[in-house]
Amino acid sequence: MQQDILINWSPQETRVAIVEHGAVQELHVERTLERGLVGNVYLGKVARVLPGMQSAFIDIGLERAAFLHVADVWHPPSEGESLSASRASQPQVPIEKQVFEGQSLMVQVIKDPIGTKGARLSTQISIAGRLLVLLPQDDHIGVSQKIPPAQRDELRTRLQTLAGGEGGGFILRTNGEDASDSELGEDIAYLRKAWTRVKEAALRLPPTSLLHQDLSLLQRVLRDLVSDATQTIRVDSREQFDALKTFGAEFMPAAADKLQHYKGERPIFDLYAIDEEIAKALARRVELKSGGYLIVDQTEALTTVDVNTGGFVGARNFDDTIFKTNLEAAQAIARQLRLRNLGGIIIVDFIDMVREDHREAVLAEFRKQLARDRVKTMAGGFSQLGLVEMTRKRTRESLAHMLCEPCPTCEGKGIVKTPRSVAYDILREILREARQFTPREFRVVAAPKVIELLLDEESQHLAGLSEFIGKPVSLQSEAAMAQEQYDIVLL
């Protein structure tokens, strides 16, 4: 699968699109003022310990306190034992016996703040390099699970030799599989130097200080997003192209060779209509080429995807029509999950299929498409209700949460009361206030549609209420008001 990476840079925002055969597969957005925190190391201060939740809130200088669960508190392994084995063999010590209020603690963000939840922390520090991840508190030498098992032992032995006995463990990343000893040695030196800077800063700086910041999105493109399938990395800023070229030449020469400075007059994202794709990725309805469509609803607890045949009637019989729509939907859903960066629990409602072989084929296609995702996914089979339940690891905000906010009129409900419902609310409110106050007159200020209804179809009810309370009721239209808004002024 051949791909191109397009980078659109501006002082306030960096946007990265991964394009395969002309179709956008992934979008990454980083705003200068809203940069992600995953990987950052802080000197935190314990604000509160919650024994009932086996958690602690840690102040790291952000708007909301961050969250540390007892399972993410690091324990030094015994001699000759890896951290994972240590955790498996030791009983979990209650958090109130490990941390106390006011304590200074070095912590690392493992999950960005999402919605109303603060950042999630770990006291096990890891610093990612180009080929390796340094585990400064552990001597464990590990190899990525994505590397074939037959090669892992050899790579682990090589890494143990290169790491020497200077302390600190390493995990070999997938892109370090074919690295030379000199490249691995350079990465080890770089990571140890970075850890030394972190330790020195922890002794020098006050609590809630940032000790180490992960790479910017531009730099992470070279470190994490470039693969053998990547043909070009096009950047539309000369300044950022030069900076990336310098950074890449030092740490990732192979990726740096694919860098190109885009000089075209048309904006780089216009080449593949990426702004249009972003607009589609924020829409609730996704059209399929066959005429079917998806409905994607994102809520606080989970995301639901509903598949519909729509106008697709091309197959010879109804079962084939459903089968072909579901097959196309399986590919489209996997792409939408990547494009929108949807995480957590996801429920997919494919159109009901009678034949078992059709269900198995759709599920196989869905899992095949999910396997292309660089984020960890797990999909179950069809439930008794015909639903497919799956999870996708959530590491950062979804595209919709990053680019949008709840509608101030409907407050995220997606619906508002009808003008008649609002009119009846107003009549009830006038009656309620008439029992408490005795003004000369009641004046209703509301949206034009509500006032129009009160003057026309509901005029008889309004006149009856005015006669019942013995006070006049006047109406005033206010175009700036939302449909559910109104004021009752006592004159």
List keywords for this structure.
491 residues; Nucleotidyltransferase, domain 5; OB fold (Dihydrolipoamide Acetyltransferase, E2P); six-stranded antiparallel sheet; 24 strands; globular
Describe the structure.
The chain is an alpha+beta fold. The protein folds into 4 domains: 3-34 and 216-274, eRF1 domain 2 (Nucleotidyltransferase, domain 5, 2-Layer Sandwich), CATH 3.30.420.60; 41-73 and 96-212, OB fold (Dihydrolipoamide Acetyltransferase, E2P), CATH 2.40.50; 283-403, no CATH class; 419-490, Hypothetical Protein Ychn, Chain: A. It contains 13 helices and 24 strands. It has helices at residues 83-89, 149-163, 181-204, 217-225, 238-251, 253-256, 274-281, 318-340, 356-370, 399-403, 419-434, 448-455, 459-469, and strands at residues 3-10, 13-20, 23-31, 41-50, 55-59, 66-69, 104-111, 120-122, 127-128, 132-135, 141-143, 169-172, 209-212, 230-235, 259-261, 285-287, 293-298, 302-308, 344-349, 377-382, 388-392, 442-446, 473-477, 486-490. The mean pLDDT is 87.
Produce the secondary structure layout.
Blueprint: E1 3-10, E2 13-20, E3 23-31, E4 41-50, E5 55-59, E6 66-69, H1 83-89, E7 104-111, E8 120-122, E9 127-128, E10 132-135, E11 141-143, H2 149-163, E12 169-172, H3 181-204, E13 209-212, H4 217-225, E14 230-235, H5 238-251, H6 253-256, E15 259-261, H7 274-281, E16 285-287, E17 293-298, E18 302-308, H8 318-340, E19 344-349, H9 356-370, E20 377-382, E21 388-392, H10 399-403, H11 419-434, E22 442-446, H12 448-455, H13 459-469, E23 473-477, E24 486-490
Parallel strand pairs: 1-14, 11-12, 14-15, 18-19, 22-23
Antiparallel strand pairs: 1-2, 2-3, 4-5, 4-7, 4-13, 5-6, 7-8, 9-10, 10-12, 16-17, 17-18, 19-21, 20-21, 22-24
